[in-house]
Amino acid sequence: MFRYERERSRFLAEKLRVIREMNAFVRNELQILSASQEHPDKTRVNTIERSVERIDWALRELLPGKEMAPKEKEHVKPVTEKIKRSA
């Protein structure tokens, strides 16, 4: 029983660590996005695209989760494509 609880505790501690790190990462990227409002229009789009790509990468690669089914991927457009259309 003790061994099970110890493993469970380690597992939960690891999950909390990942959540803390992702929280800090996303907050840093949001600060960059917020500051990009003051950039000239030409550099603003590039700054936003890079931040969105980094957040997208972190969510896909660093957070555990299941891979999207092929049919789900067909309906999801890349975030950067959406940004380019709105700019």
Q: What is the percent of helical residues? A: over 70%
Series of secondary-structure elements, N-terminal to C-terminal: HHHH
Shape: elongated
Structural class: mainly alpha
Overall description:
The protein has 87 residues and is mostly helical. It has one domain. 79% of the residues lie in helices and 0% in strands. The chain has four helices and no strands. It has helices at 2-35, 41-61, 70-75, 79-86. Helix 1 packs antiparallel against helix 2 (41-61) and helix 2 runs antiparallel to helix 4.
In short:
With 87 residues, the chain is mainly α.
Keywords:
elongated, about 80% helix, mainly alpha
Helices, strands, pairings?
Layout: H1 2-35, H2 41-61, H3 70-75, H4 79-86
